[in-house]
Amino acid sequence: MNIQAMILTGSIIAIGTTLYGAPTTEISNETEKEYLQIVTLNYRNGENDREGILLDLYEYSVSDNKMKEIIELPVDPGYPVAYYDHKREKVFFSDDPYGYNYDNLYEYDFETDKIKQVTFGKNIFNDMFVVSDKMYLNVAPQYSTVMKPAIFDMDTYEITYLDAADNDTWYTSLSYNSLTDKLLTITNSDDEMRTNRVRSVTHIRPKSIISFSPEFKDFEELYHTEDYEIYLSRQFDENHILMTYDQSMMSLEPRKLKILDIKSKEVSDYDIPGIHEVYSFYPRNNGEGIYILGSNNEGDFDLYYYDIQNHSTQTVFQPGELPDSHRSIVDFIYYVE
């Protein structure tokens, strides 16, 4: 699927109905700074994609309330991911410049002003972030039918997979929370989702939410369900997880948010006032708010910040910060360092 086919069309998804209060967890290290990195796409000719697409990577400093453009690059990946590494002054991004219908990682070096291919295979990448100077990816490598977590060495360019031989377990929605120092993911079996029961009866893939350490150890199943489809999961505080869900793969209802109590396993709907549809989201570590990529009640697709204490929602990008050639916000990540 090329980039022209995959960009969001606005049929994202509505949210649930019950409001939880703010979590009580506090950031333990006051020197930590919060950032968003935001991947957007622009029309190269300013009007349409006939002459190609530009990937525009932004970084938003939460503490400074400042947005800056990191880089604009001509790309044509199956799915666009990008990450700016402060330490190396490099941007790592996915691309398929030769139209092979698979991606590889490329590196843009600000010091040399050069682009270099750093992986050589047939890949699709999703989820890209850095923890303790290690880049974490979700990758569907050559000859694999599933996405799997991997660690990418930004100096040697070596990829270490969680389980290179596992061709059955799908890992999706990979994220990291610095408060728990754990990775969070959703798993399901490729074989199981192809059974007649799932394909013809339930239309629900049995899924588990799993936490594990950045060293790919200490695996713990936090939740399992066959009652609905889970798409994204994020740590809300030490005892709660937020997740997006559908009633089934065949559901025509809008996608909603639920909140999971890890200890009791109780699940309830979670409503964000003013937000109608959600594509992606990240709660802040201090529990004060949630960043949401989605649509508001007027149908405007944008990146929003929801202030939990004040029950207010506002856009992250201010008027004029996105160019006239802007096409779409693809995705974003939240992190502290």
TrEMBL record:
It comes from the Bacteria. This is DUF5050 domain-containing protein. It comes from Anaerotignum lactatifermentans.
